[in-house]
Sequence to fold (246 residues):
Amino acid sequence: MSHYPYRPTRIFKMAAYDLDEQEKLGDLKAWWAQYGNYVTAIFVVAALAIAGAQGWKWWQNKQSVEASTLYFALSEAAGKNEMPKLKDALAQLLEKYAGTAYAPRGALLAAKASFDAGDLASAKTQLDWVVANSKEDELKSIARLRLATVLLDQKQYDAALAALDGKHSESFAGLFLDMKGDVFALQGKTADAKTAYEAALAKLDPKGGQKQYTQLKLDSVSGAGTAPSVAPAVAAPAAPAEGAKK
Fold:
């Protein structure tokens, strides 16, 4: 009985707590009724974004693996000079996996094989594809330089100069000027060839073998005026690493 005076106080406190909790619960229900749909939408969008990112990564990896298989089949066909197999592998690579890093490299490799086989029309088509579709400036520069070589072989001098006037990486500037000198020399434009070779020498790597070769061509047009032979094409780029992205 000694505790009786405290019981009403305890009951009042509990009632107050219950009322406070009910008010908070009511506020929460009201807030959810107003904003619940937005919160749910945010969670759904976030979940979809995460799932989409994971799905996209999986799809890209799958594309890269399948493209690499075709690329190495193309490379093997080029090494064995099996042009039908090469063209079949390239067609599949460009049709199904054009967005991968393997596609432009495959087209460059096929273009070289076609050029070596004397199929200049196919080489031109393959190089045009790289120029139009590659997302890598270095590969586009290589393709333009090789395209100029093909056009030069076809005696399409104006078209070759147009290809060399296209956008290219600064690291290729010396090679582009050297090739312009070749075009001018074959056209009999000795003064223009000399100017192009001199400009090329200023851009080329002093320690590289190309600079010595360009100097020989400059000496040739400056002296007897004999048209020089065309410079060899730049080396093919290495295949992208496994899992290469678009």
About this structure: The chain has a mean pLDDT of 80. The two ends are 84 Å apart (CA to CA). The chain is about 75% helix and 0% strand.
